[in-house]
Design a protein that fits this description.
This protein is an alpha+beta fold. The protein folds into 2 domains: 90 residues, Outer membrane lipoprotein wza domain like (Outer membrane lipoprotein wza fold like, Roll), CATH 3.10.560; 67 residues, wza like domain (wza like fold), CATH 3.30.1950.10. 20% of the residues lie in helices and 26% in strands. It has a 6-stranded mixed sheet with strand order 1-11-10-13-7-8, sandwiched between helices. The protein has a 3-stranded antiparallel sheet with strand order 3-2-6, with helices on one face. A two-stranded antiparallel ribbon has the order 4-5. The longest helix has 14 residues. The chain is elongated and about 65 Å long.
Length: 200
């Protein structure tokens, strides 16, 4: 009797889910119906305030409560596991909004009478750059990052790269957009940048 051969089922770690999503975005065909915007317009939206996302590392301070003050990481579900009040949803909140949410939960739960909370981002989530660059992949986000700096981090453009437009998937958006590079494009933490091939 032939032995039973079990099919191989690959297992993916949660930490790689963002990169898998990025690869899926890259593999998707360029559609004529894809939304198009300009770098100038996209840059203006970043002034609405930085939104926390999965992978961000935070320093949460509860004044006069040293046992609650600590470093925390936003998990894959976009939440922070916080003492006493369990998971607090942080995804797409600003640091000020998250601080108010934690303070309200501590007060309403009767844990701290007059909580004063501050939230600081100590390390942003990484960005991804794929396609026509020398070293595509995941890179740490540092400071104010532009597209040119992101490309340089990935070893520069290939000879086939389209340098006039770029495909961008912002973590807070539901779909990618095609961006016309009319000005230096600002990159946000969690962005997936796809440098496509130029067609001459």
């Amino acid at each position: 009797m032939d032995p039973i051969v079990k099919p191989f089922i690959p297992r993916f770690r949660p930490a790689t889910s963002a990169l898998c999503l990025a690869l899926a975005v890259l593999a998707a065909p360029v559609s004529a119906g894809m939304p198009t915007t300009s770098a100038t317009a996209l840059n203006a939206r970043l002034h609405d305030g930085y939104q926390i996302g999965a992978g961000d590392k935070l320093r949460i301070t509860v004044f006069d409560e040293p046992t609650l003050t600590n470093d925390y990481i936003v998990n894959e579900g976009g939440a922070v596991a916080f003492p006493l009040i369990d998971d607090v949803m942080a995804n797409r909140l600003t640091t000020e909004q998250l601080a108010r949410t934690i303070a309200d939960k501590l007060k309403n739960g009767g844990y701290v009478l007059t909580p004063k909370v501050a939230v600081e981002i100590t390390q942003h989530r990484p960005f991804y750059i794929l396609g026509e660059v020398t070293k595509p992949g995941e890179y740490p986000y540092r400071g104010e990052l532009t597209l040119s700096q992101a490309v340089a981090t990935a070893g520069g453009y290939t000879a086939r790269a389209n340098t006039r437009t770029v495909k961008l998937q912002r973590q807070s958006a539901t779909e990618p957009v095609r961006v016309k590079l009319d000005s230096p494009l600002k990159i946000a933490p969690g962005d997936t940048i796809i440098i496509q091939e130029a067609f001459f």
